[in-house]
C-alpha cells in the first residue's frame, strides 16, 4: 500500500496542493521549510506511487449549460457484460463517473445533462440499448458537500514511520 510510505512532509505537501493545485512549488517549499528541489522530488515520488494522479481544472457544469446532475443505479440483463457495458459507457460523454458497486445495482453512474429532456433522451437512446434490465435515476438538486479528501486524516501517524526531516535528509532519501 502506497500510503505506508507517506510521512509528515508528504501529507503537508498533499494538503497544500489539494487546497490550491496552482500553488507554486516554491511557495510549498517555503511553507514546508525545505528546498524547491525537495518539493519537486516529493511530487515526483507521490506521482510514481500513484498518490497523485495529475491535476485538472474543475469546470462548473451549470456555467457551461449542464443544469441536470443525476445518479443512476444500473442493473444489467447479463452481469457478465460488465466490461462491454463499461466500455460503452466510456463513449457516452454525459457519463462522468462509473462505479462497480455492492448492493442493489451492478453499476452506479453519475451523469450530466443540459436539462431533464436531455437526460431522458440520454437514458432512452444511449443507456437502455446497453442491455439494462432496469435502472433507477436520482436527480441531484445541489451538492450540499463537495470537498477534497482530508489529507491529515486519511493516514494515521501510527501507521507511518514519522521522523522530523531536514531539507538534506529529504533530498538524500529521494
Q: Brief description of this entry?
A:
With 174 residues, the chain is an alpha+beta fold. Helices cover 37% and strands 18% of the residues. The chain starts with 7 loop residues before the first helix and ends with a helix.
Main structural class: alpha+beta
Distance between the termini: 18 Å
Rg calculated over all Cα atoms: 21 Å
Question: Percent helix among the residues?
Answer: 25-40%
Question: How many strands in all?
Answer: 4
Shape: elongated
Number of helices: 7
Give the neighbour order of strands across the main sheet: 2-3-1-4
- Identify low-pLDDT runs: 154-174
Strand content: 15-25%
Notable characteristics:
174 residues; alpha+beta; 4-stranded antiparallel sheet; elongated
Overview of the structural elements:
- Strands 2-3-1-4 form a four-stranded antiparallel sheet.
- The model is unreliable at 154-174 (pLDDT under 50).
- Helix 2 (25-32) packs across helix 3 (36-48).
- The protein has 174 residues and is an alpha+beta fold.
- The chain is built from seven helices and four strands, in the order αααβαββαβαα.
- The radius of gyration is 21 Å and the shape is elongated.
Give the SSE layout:
Blueprint lengths: L7 H12 L5 H8 L3 H13 L19 E9 L5 H9 L4 E6 L6 E7 L2 H12 L4 E9 L10 H4 L12 H7 L1
Antiparallel strand pairs: 1-3, 1-4, 2-3
Amino acid at each position: 500500500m502506497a500510503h505506508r510510505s507517506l510521512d509528515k512532509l508528504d501529507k503537508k505537501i498533499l494538503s497544500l496542493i489539494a487546497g490550491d493545485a496552482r500553488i507554486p512549488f516554491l511557495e510549498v517549499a517555503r511553507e514546508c521549510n525545505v528546498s524547491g528541489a525537495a518539493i519537486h522530488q516529493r511530487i515526483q515520488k507521490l506521482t510514481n506511487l500513484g498518490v497523485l494522479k495529475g491535476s485538472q481544472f474543475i469546470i462548473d457544469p451549470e456555467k457551461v449549460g449542464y443544469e441536470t446532475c443525476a445518479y443512476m443505479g444500473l442493473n444489467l440483463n447479463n452481469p457478465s457484460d460488465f466490461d462491454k457495458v463499461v466500455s460503452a459507457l466510456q463513449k457516452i460523454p454525459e457519463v462522468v463517473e462509473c462505479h462497480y458497486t455492492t448492493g442493489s445495482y451492478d453499476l452506479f453512474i453519475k451523469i450530466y445533462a443540459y436539462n431533464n429532456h436531455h437526460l431522458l433522451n440520454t437514458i432512452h437512446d444511449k443507456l437502455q440499448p446497453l442491455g439494462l434490465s432496469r435502472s433507477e435515476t436520482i436527480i441531484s438538486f445541489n451538492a450540499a458537500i463537495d470537498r477534497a479528501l482530508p489529507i491529515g486524516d486519511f493516514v494515521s501517524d501510527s501507521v507511518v514511520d514519522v521522523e522530523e526531516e531536514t531539507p538534506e535528509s529529504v533530498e538524500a532519501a529521494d
